[in-house]
Amino acid sequence: MPVQFDPAPAVVDLVRRTEALVADVALPAETAHRGSAHDAPEELRRTLQEAARRAGVFAPHADTRFGGLGLDLRDRAPVFEAAGYSLFGPLALNCAAPDEGNMHLLERVASDAQQQRYLRPLVSGETRSCFAMTEPAPGAGSDPRALTTTARRTSAGWLLNGHKWFITGARGAAFAIVMARTSGEPGSPGGATMFLVDTDTPGLRHVRDLDCLDESMFGGHAELLLTDVEVGEDAVLGEVDRGFEHAQVRLGPARLTHCMRWLGTARRAADVAADRALTRQAFGARLGDLGMVQQHLADNEIDIEASRALVLRACWDLDTGAPAAQITSITKTFVAEAVNRVVDRSLQVCGALGISGDAPLARLYREVRPFRIYDGPSETHRWAIARRVLRAAERREGTRADGVHP
Amino acid sequence: MPVQFDPAPAVVDLVRRTEALVADVALPAETAHRGSAHDAPEELRRTLQEAARRAGVFAPHADTRFGGLGLDLRDRAPVFEAAGYSLFGPLALNCAAPDEGNMHLLERVASDAQQQRYLRPLVSGETRSCFAMTEPAPGAGSDPRALTTTARRTSAGWLLNGHKWFITGARGAAFAIVMARTSGEPGSPGGATMFLVDTDTPGLRHVRDLDCLDESMFGGHAELLLTDVEVGEDAVLGEVDRGFEHAQVRLGPARLTHCMRWLGTARRAADVAADRALTRQAFGARLGDLGMVQQHLADNEIDIEASRALVLRACWDLDTGAPAAQITSITKTFVAEAVNRVVDRSLQVCGALGISGDAPLARLYREVRPFRIYDGPSETHRWAIARRVLRAAERREGTRADGVHP
Amino acid sequence: MPVQFDPAPAVVDLVRRTEALVADVALPAETAHRGSAHDAPEELRRTLQEAARRAGVFAPHADTRFGGLGLDLRDRAPVFEAAGYSLFGPLALNCAAPDEGNMHLLERVASDAQQQRYLRPLVSGETRSCFAMTEPAPGAGSDPRALTTTARRTSAGWLLNGHKWFITGARGAAFAIVMARTSGEPGSPGGATMFLVDTDTPGLRHVRDLDCLDESMFGGHAELLLTDVEVGEDAVLGEVDRGFEHAQVRLGPARLTHCMRWLGTARRAADVAADRALTRQAFGARLGDLGMVQQHLADNEIDIEASRALVLRACWDLDTGAPAAQITSITKTFVAEAVNRVVDRSLQVCGALGISGDAPLARLYREVRPFRIYDGPSETHRWAIARRVLRAAERREGTRADGVHP
Amino acid sequence: MPVQFDPAPAVVDLVRRTEALVADVALPAETAHRGSAHDAPEELRRTLQEAARRAGVFAPHADTRFGGLGLDLRDRAPVFEAAGYSLFGPLALNCAAPDEGNMHLLERVASDAQQQRYLRPLVSGETRSCFAMTEPAPGAGSDPRALTTTARRTSAGWLLNGHKWFITGARGAAFAIVMARTSGEPGSPGGATMFLVDTDTPGLRHVRDLDCLDESMFGGHAELLLTDVEVGEDAVLGEVDRGFEHAQVRLGPARLTHCMRWLGTARRAADVAADRALTRQAFGARLGDLGMVQQHLADNEIDIEASRALVLRACWDLDTGAPAAQITSITKTFVAEAVNRVVDRSLQVCGALGISGDAPLARLYREVRPFRIYDGPSETHRWAIARRVLRAAERREGTRADGVHP
């Protein structure tokens, strides 16, 4: 079967309906809230999701068993990009981080009972969730092995203690997936376990919402404290001591869906810049007739098309079960940087207007910067990529003459 | 006289005192206001400036005749950089934009009477001012010749009408320097005149403050409307129809002082990143022991030192009256981009902490982005630089054999 | 049909055989000639091509009617990349520029008689060809409309006069495809015609071979002079005055096949660097354990994977007849720059060894630089890309509310 | 004393005479040899240096005691840049690498007798020299501590054994400064000693000249073998076991003089590109009227001016004896990369002409690439820069409150 790129007509149709929803509902709502969802009311979320349900584009990624549209990753790509055109689009489709990644994780790792209790209402939009992994220094960050939160086995189940930080969507979430150390020491690569913890469990405290550069994620980023939080045996998600492994299940696709959504942001920024270049006059010419502006516009397209092509490539590997750690790292790193370049150039094309809140660029500029850090900073991915390159070189040694002139 | 770089001991002393003031007064105030001065109370300004006066570092750039310290541009460079280490430092020293540039302009172009009335209280910190040049599209922006605001001669003086936009420091300013067209059409290179307009003059309306990416400039950025604003003949600053020319007097030094202050911001960001790299552990090592982090730290130093060297070079040319249009364009373009790179890298080194308000990086990230647009976007400067290169090439033609192999 | 990426097993097999041929035959020959084919003997070409024929990988792109393997563009991609791993690989497979592009053109535009006379021996490797389009300044270069070579109709056919420059593969070619102006003036967009001219036609003079940065193209780059070259009516390739149009038939695929081959060069360079990083010690560590070296290795992978994904995307559009001008321009620009970055980084990783002829990097460094200029410099492509962006923005106007906050 | 930039009139005059010599003598000679000096005859060197002597610009850097003009580093900067405008200019002035650095070293470290025997004829141009430090892997390269060549004390003096590689100017040199290990093991930071070795000493064998990307250094880059080379006690340059320390004496200034000369190369490339942009037409406009070409021209100026400013800054520190390790590393890294960018852009502006030998760009492109590796690759310098940043951060700890929000 030769390489082929076009999605099925049903997916194309889904994309068109998502575009319409974004234009008619998500963008106006975003403008009304100046792009900030950190403090947005639950009412906003309900309204947006109801519109998406009516448009038939709700939960496109979730399994049909739980009420989703069941798209594989390749088909999600154009839909999520269309949703990401507005900062509020993914919220409308219920495919925003961290819920979307959590649904993926629960579909694959949770027990039936856990799926009924946690996954079903999450897919339907009845509840929200958070993923409580990262910790303040010197705990788990880019290096998850530094995990310091502990879960100690008790007669009744587990006792959790720890400090979590930068937990997206925590305020208002119904439950948290908490990563805690069940064996080993901070720094050791194993011994983590995931727990499903209702947020009203005694001892789980929302300390504060962080003041952040980005503000478009519903529920914000919070600091949580776990003090003798008791959970039952049935709170274990997956298997004990296999938390890091289970996290990988979530990570690969989550990286790609981040790419898809933020590609929509980039597309939006590039469109705004092109519109501006088309209409604004300077130095006796249309802005878009000036070579340096044209370079910005062209580089935007190059970055976007290369990103899209990489995303599809990585989706294909994940969908078909091919080894995909290298391609998802590559894709995440490239797309995160490309998206930032696109928004930066687009803002520059818009000049002072781009700095002001009269255009969306300043907001988008703030929103995309964290992408180079979230889900592994570029440096961590580059390190992982290079190590795989070196291992491949090691395998080549002995099996072939190298390409060096003798 | 050979090239030499070290400032006089008195200047070094001034730098040390400025650093102390910044550490003791400006940084704490900045932290208390989360780096935002758009809505800061007048009280804050008074307090900061009183501290600077006591430290003997107030108004270092202003002429001694008006109460300043009378530093030339070369000596200002390290002092302003030290002040810029805090977003609130320049405000404390009364050397923030736009007042600092306006003082420079008034020193050179204003009449004695105008200097007494407008310059003296501005230098002393009694008043603030703004420079009302830019207009909403399709008016004056990167291309000042698009100026649409008009001043029509009346029997009593002048009648001003127009729409101004992105006027920094307008809210609370005692007067505005208004650029208006007195002859020619929008697009024509001549025919502009500057007017000194008290902000309580009837017809001058503060429409709104813009919501902006940056928020550290006291008084914010405003939209102004001028409707039949009447001013007398004595409101003309400099000569009629020579407004663009007079603006050049302001622009060259203003570009450099922007560079100096924002270099301080870059230095701050680089220090925060280095401190973090020193203490944070990841992957079994100090962050600062990882090569990709080292690269960020090193590139920060390279950008900062190259910026400093260029600034001094450009200051020398302006101080000695050498032709400096090319070197100031080069310096402004390089430094604006270098400062952005430094802050971006520093934020990246700090990871999620850098995204959060728990470190100053996210704030600095927002503050430096506009520098690539303010005082002429990089593209406009590059265009001007290239045209001078081509004119130089034209002059070479005929006067020498070129470097091309025959 | 969902997006899919994997080539058919027969293509995978072809790639493996090409890799073996490159390792066993092409790389040793390349080393023996130090990567330079400008002055290589015809004997070398015969030997390489005979080996490719035996390996069953000869002329993979040519139509089966003429003795090729008939691969579409998507299937060519991995085969050509494998061939390009050695500078002499494409020559072996008879898929090097300019012959490969000329075959494509003749397949689509030539008459049956012309195909028998010119295409058949070209595909079989019996002859070589050149494409005589570019001219010395002020003639046709990045701007083909500047074409100055003329063809004047005579009673017997056409009389060609002109000066051609940088004509790849001209020395030793059996025929040239000459672009000449048959109407209009230099600068006008129409009026060009292509002519098939035997290189032994009187009046067609090979003036000299150019001394060039790159040296791996068989037959070098030549300067040609056409003085009253007489050809018959049957020399017209395609239709009179539609030469620019026909050139487009050649250009799209030719750009992609350039990308494929040079991606092989990049892959080679990256492998050499990885091998070096694996074995060389410095500062008490393996070179590959140093973060800045890891960054180079990782960025190489990112550039290569993004390039591959873009190439496949563009091939898909060309293969399926979708509008592909934008995606081929984007792909050519990105890949040309990515390939240069990869080779540059790889050379840097190898240090002084990379500068010396003891490794292939210095040679590869010379060979890939022209790719950013050949087939349209990056600037010309960016200009074309931006104009399409602006036209798309124009179409959007009126049909939808833009993304700008009101 | 305030910062000041202009050189004394005598230096300006020297620059003018150097420019004239370069235009009249060096550039024509360079063109005649196509920029390659690896195989150039001794006669060429004699002729060029005789012309420089007549012009009064010979050996501007050498101490007046030995026949030089005695310029300090700041005054050398513009003179060396002027010389570097031609690849053969530094050879003419006898200020090319490695002789120029060796003169500097001998002036500071050699005994009187050594100065009379080796330095005097080197300054006068009677002899040439080489600096034999680097070794093939796994020996001394970017990491000099890997030094494997040994010197063993004998009754009569010393016995040297080792393998040297990439020894610039070795063919035809009268003597070599050989770095050999006199104590410690490869990898240890001490125990190196420098020896002055006449190249006709038995056992010192010139194995071969390396085939290299760059070819403008007179005498090329060679591989040397030392087999039981006997030298007397008086061959020790400086003190035993202090070779690495002495090498530092050479390195700081040598890095800067490399920068100066290669800045001349960059200036040349930028001029060629500007000339081309002035005259070449494309797409109905002068090349220089196209924005993307203007961007290249502007970025060239920015890179050159930033480089010049950094070089002067670093010269000032070295001339005045201030700590200069950080600023010379910064300057070397920035300038090496800037020079490469300038030449790359200039070549791009010239299009296919730039690829061909009909313009000097292809040659310059080859010549400047090694600068990012010679005298320490950029990565090694960045590593050293970062370590100094971290040490400075360490010193700050405890002495001041940091800039991080509490």
From TrEMBL, chains A, B, C, D:
Please state what the protein is called: Acyl-CoA dehydrogenase
The residues covered by the Acyl-CoA oxidase/dehydrogenase middle domain are: 130-210
Query: Which biological process terms from the Gene Ontology are attached to this UniProt entry?
Result: fatty acid beta-oxidation using acyl-CoA dehydrogenase
The protein's required cofactor(s) are namely: FAD
Q: Name one GO molecular function term.
A: flavin adenine dinucleotide binding
Looking at the record, the residues that make up the Acyl-CoA dehydrogenase/oxidase C-terminal domain are 241-390
Q: Can you cite an annotated GO cellular component?
A: cytoplasm
Database matches in InterPro entries = Acyl-CoA_dehydrogenase, Acyl-CoA_Oxase/DH_mid-dom, Acyl-CoA_Oxase/DH_mid-dom_sf, AcylCo_DH-like_C, AcylCo_DH/oxidase_C, AcylCoA_DH/ox_N, AcylCoA_DH/ox_N_sf, AcylCoA_DH/oxidase_NM_dom_sf
Q: Which UniProt keywords apply?
A: FAD, Flavoprotein, Oxidoreductase
Top-level lineage group: Bacteria
Q: Name one Pfam family in it.
A: Acyl-CoA_dh_N
Task: Outline the extent of the Acyl-CoA dehydrogenase/oxidase N-terminal domain.
Answer: 24-126
Name the family.
Answer: Belongs to the acyl-CoA dehydrogenase family.
What subunit structure does UniProt give? Homodimer.
